[in-house]
Amino acid sequence: MDAFTIFGLQTTATIVTYALAAKWYVWPRLAAVRLRWPLALALVWLFSVEGSLDLVKAVVQGIAIRATDYQLGAAWFIPTYAVPLLWVSQAMIFMLLLRREPVAVAASAPRAALTG
C-alpha cells in the first residue's frame, strides 16, 4: 500500500472512532444533562465552577506578567479570540444551569435512546 492509502485508512478509522465515541459516550451524557438528572447537573456545576476559576486565574496571571507586552506570534489569537469565547461559553452554561423552568422532553424517547 502506498502512503496515501494508509493515510486514507487512518483518517477513516479516526472518523469512525470519533463517531462511535460520540454515540456511546458523549450523547448519553448530554441527554442526562438535558433531562436534568441530579448527578449530571452536579457534575456540570462542578466542572463549570472549576473551569471558571481556572479562567480567572489564567487572566490574572496574564495581567500580572503583562503578557500583552511580548511578541506572541500566532499565540496572539488565544487571548484575542479564544479567551472571550470561553467567557461567553461559561456565561451561557451558567445561565442554562440557573434557568428554573424545566425543559419539555418526551417521556419515553430519551430512555429508549439511552439504552439503545
Overview of this protein structure:
The protein has 116 residues and is mostly helical. The chain has one domain. The protein is 76% helix and 0% strand. It is built from four helices and no strands. Helix 2 packs antiparallel against helix 3. It is flat.
In short:
The protein is mostly helical. It contains four helices and no strands.
Features:
116 residues, mainly alpha, 76% helix, 0% strand
Distance between the termini: 38 Å
Shape: flat
Query: What would you call the structural class?
Result: mainly alpha
Low-confidence stretches: none
**What is the number of independent domains?**
1
Instruction: Compute the CA-based radius of gyration.
Output: 20 Å
Sheet with the most strands?
A: none
**Mean pLDDT, nearest integer?**
85
Structure annotation, total helices: 4
* Number of separate strands: 0
Beta-sheet strand percentage?
under 5%
- The string of secondary-structure elements, in order, is HHHH
Share of helix, binned? over 70%
Task: Furnish the topology, listing elements before pairings.
Elements: H1 3-34, H2 38-64, H3 77-98, H4 109-115
